[in-house]
Amino acid sequence: MLVASLDKARRQASHSLPAWVLGCAALVAAVFFVQPFPWSASPLGVTCQDLAIGESLLHGFGSKDISYSMPMQSVLCAAVRHVPAGSQPACVLALWSAALLLAFTLGCLLHSPLAGGLSALAASRLIVPGLEYDNVYPLFVLLVANVLVWAGRGPGLGQGLALGAAVGLSVLERSPLFLFPFVAAGYSLWVQDPGSRGRRWPYAASLVAVPALILLPWVWMNYALHGRIILFEENRAAFNIVTGAIGAVSTIEGDLRHLVSLADGTGALAWALGRILEHPLDFLKVFGARAVSILGEHPALFLLAAAGAFFSRSRHEFRLCGLLVAYYLAVHCLMSVRPRYFTPVWPVLCGMSAGFLAELALPVSGRPGTRLCAGVVSALYALCAGMGLFVLAKVMAHPARPDRARLEERLSARPDLACLWAESGRERLARGDIKAGLADLRRALLLGPRPDRALELARALILADSPQQGLVHSLDQTGADWNDRVRRHLLRALAFLREGRSREAEAAFGEAERLRSPVDTPALRSTPYDRELQERLNIGYRLLYRELAALLKPLPPAEQIALLQRGLVPGRGAKERASPFALLLRDSDWWLDVAGQAHAAGDGKGFLAAGLQAAQERLSPAAAAALLDRCRGIGDPALAVPLLRRLAALRPRDPAVLLALASGNLKLKAGAEARRWLERSTSLPLGQAQLHQALDLCRALADQGCARRLLELSTKLHPRNPGYWLERAHLAAQTGRRKEAAAHLREALALPLQAAGLLRAAGICRNMGEDGREFELLARLSHAEPDDPGLWLAMADLAAEGGRRGEAIAYLDRADSPGLAPDQRLKQAIILQRLGLLSRALAILDSLAAADPRNAGYLSSRGVVRALLGRGPDAVSDLRQAVSLDPRSLQSYLSLGSLLDSSCRTDEAIRVYQDALRRPGSDQPAVRQAIRRSRAVLLERRKAGASRAGCGSAPRR
Questions:
Q1: Residue where one domain finishes, among candidates 397, 422, 448
Q2: How far is CA 206 from the centre of its chain?
Q3: Is the dihedral of CA 685, 686, 691, 693 positive or negative?
Q4: Average pLDDT over residues 549-559
Q5: What sign does the dihedral 223-226-230-233 (CA atoms) show?
Q6: How many domains does the chain have?
Q7: What percent of the chain has pLDDT over 90?
């Protein structure tokens, strides 16, 4: 009886003042025992990358890394750093206090105010004030845990909406809980009272749908910016996922490209899934090793939380918190991890442990303090929701294509914002406008001093070769992040190079390499395999010199190369070859990329300088092929030829390079050089495409002997290819060797010929004067392709040339169909003109000109037909419009001049011919020669004072 009375008294005491006093005392202790104390913490911990991304979202200008962080993290960092400096610690303190309050309310909801105080006290030792991920994300995980405990008591539509929104807000900060709605919904439907499953469907559906809706603006912004769907942080976890799949326990530092080779279009997640499916047992073993390592971080906390979950397993609150913790741990143990990744979940374990300890010390029958906790949680929920709405508003307002005009507009509206001037300076530097970029960056640093802005200004001073470039040596980087400290030493190396102090430059680079070295980076539990991977990646980290080169990008490539060459000290032998500047100068892949960027920007001189630097002895075949492609794509052969000569010296037996060099010299009208390189290329084994290219060069050089040798070689190598036999037949027919042409044509016709081949054979027969055989080939082709109007037009053309007018008209009628292409209709009109059916020809040309009134070819042909019909003024109008639209069409000039001459307008005709001869022209030389003859005749006639006999005849066509 006495024991029962004592037990009853203990339970009643839990509802009295002592329970609250104990809980509040623990909460106060939580505040005063935190390390470091929040308002004395200096500086604010936040990476400059998150700041830059947040500023991009806040002010609507572009950032290449805008999708690297979730928007809540970056916007929150930028927003806090935008408030006055004296108020920034208060903002950080407010976020930290909110997390402690949620740790307190979680303990209250799980047990009592005493549990809340103990939970907050424990959490205060694990959550450090700041703005980094592991400082801010615990607030959102605790919010999810509080709402989860409340919603788990009676799941319904309202509870599902509230929990889904809380998870959505947490995903806006960081993505680990993105799958938790499905886990919680499944638990609600199939574990928690399955008999009432029907009533829980609205809860499950809303829990899954709301986070997706919250993420939609973020996904839409990424799609508008990048043209692809990005759900969470882009590539942020890629390295951890890949290293986790290959067996690393702890996170290691490095570049993914130095560890695995991903095929184009293959993401890190897809690659990791394939690897796990290939080696499932190895992956499970490493998964277990990571889990054991995490349990070893806070074993007492895990044991108390596990005991609480076990002894309170009948209560859904504990089970749901255990579900959240288990999910969080499982998701992170799928990849290589660090201890700080688990900081956000420690406060939830604190709440579970505190609830278990409080139950042992002071069992309760109810839930004291629930109403007060509900008010606190609601207020903090509203605070987080307000932050989320603000972030989503910035995401939705972000422009899909940020440009300079928008940035100028923002600068005009807010000239006091340092981040806008910093972005303007970065953008100007990227465009190579160093002087203007320097002024903008100087103003940004004056408006808002910050370590990263000081580095940007120092870089601009070095690029501008300013007398003040020594600023980088005196910069205070106390508040800078790890990457910026490395960057400072790289900039110091560049400043020393500007001064010609190569040894000091190399020492500064060595200091950057030491800081970047991942050997000293703390890991979770390094295994021998982890250390092996890290050593492999450390070799890749020697490519730090590429980061040095990236800082020089605004300079012209030739100036970059000259600056790096200052770092070479002659006479040092192997040491000189191993210096970072020598390594960079020998890095063909890097200079190939620089050449490509110069090519894309239209910088021909930069392309040549970078290309010559890339073309070195160790140039790989793939790099040589890429450089060759860039040379082919450059518009100016004068820039391509020197680079091709360098490639030819490196790869003297590469026919592709030699043929490209021959082609470049031909464009420069260096026929002898082109012929020399062509002869060198034809002495090497050629592929089929290269044979075609060589043949084209032979034709362009009018080198019949070379073409003949190549074709003989082609038919020997590819005797079953009818195309080469047709080429040989065509060449023989052109040079008057009819018997040889006929023999080659027979070889071609003995092989299977496609429609294009038969047409080519028919054309060769026409050149040989064998109209009957041509007609036979076309008839054979028409039987094989009876519905091809192009064949019937070809047969009509042949019949018209042979004087078989009736047959030609019949073939034209056969070809006539609504599906004729415009060029085929033009050919139809020209054949009708030759047959004297001018009205039909004019009707076709009228319809073509109506559909495309700016087509010079249609107008020129219609002008000739109108002239033949006696409609001189209309014909002159058409031909004048044709030469205006296409000044290169010498045939139109010839027709117009002839028409004006026939109308006794000799002076106008002479002016037209003179204008034509000043044009470059794309017609055959015969047309230009005809214009010269006609002009000479008219000048002679005008000199003699005679007029043309028979004015009014038709123009020449």
A1: 397
A2: 35
A3: negative
A4: 82
A5: negative
A6: 2
A7: 3
pLDDT of 213 over the 90 cut:
yes
Q: Are 809 and 841 in contact (CB under 8 A)?
A: no
Answer yes or no: are the C-beta atoms of 113 and 362 closer than 8 Å: no
- 344, 373, 397 - which closes a domain: 397
Q: How far apart are CA 844 and CA 833, in angstroms?
A: 11
Q: How many residues does the chain have?
A: 957
b/e map 774-799, b = 16+ CB within 10 Å: bbebbeebbeeeeeebbbbbbbbbbb
In this structure, are residues 141 and 125 in contact, taking their beta carbons and an 8 Å threshold? Answer: no
Evaluate whether 916 touches 923 at the Cβ level (below 8 Å). no
pLDDT over threshold 80, residue 353: yes
**Tens of pLDDT along 753-766?**
655 556 566 666 66
Q: Write the CATH number for 875.
A: 1.25.40.10
Residue whose tokens read 């406008």? 433
Q: Is residue 497 part of a domain?
A: no
CA angle 702, 705, 710 (to 5 degrees): 100
User: Within 10 A of 511 (CB to CB), how many other CB atoms are there?
Assistant: 16
Locate 316 and state its tokens: 């859904």
Instruction: List the structure tokens of 749.
Output: 């016709």
Question: Reduced to 3 states, what is the DSSP secondary structure of residue 337?
Answer: strand
Tokens read off for 747: 């070889």
pLDDT score of 168: 92
At 723-757, the pLDDT tens digits run: 556 666 665 666 666 666 666 666 666 666 655 55
The whole-angstrom separation of Cα 232 and Cα 743 is 69
Domain assignment present for 636: no
Query: Of 332, 282, 364, which is closest to residue 112 (Cα–Cα)?
Result: 364
Phi, psi of 250 (to 5 degrees): -100, 155
Residue-range definition of the domain harbouring residue 101: 2-237+298-397
C-alpha distances in Å from residue 889, one per residue of 288, 594, 844, 860, 863: 77, 40, 21, 9, 14
Q: What does the radius of gyration of the chain's CA atoms come to, in whole angstroms? A: 40
Stated pTM of the model: 0.64
Give the integer Cα–Cα distance in Å for 9 and 14. Answer: 9
Is residue 264 a part of any domain in this protein?
A: no
Q: How many other C-beta atoms lie within 10 A of the C-beta of residue 349?
A: 26
Residue 780: inside a domain: no
Phi, psi of 836 (to 5 degrees): 85, 5
For residue 942, what are the CA distances in angstroms to 456, 648, 720, 901, 945?
74, 57, 61, 12, 5
Residue carrying the six token digits 């073509």: 848
Q: At what angle do helices 280-295 and 268-278 cross, to 10 degrees?
A: 110
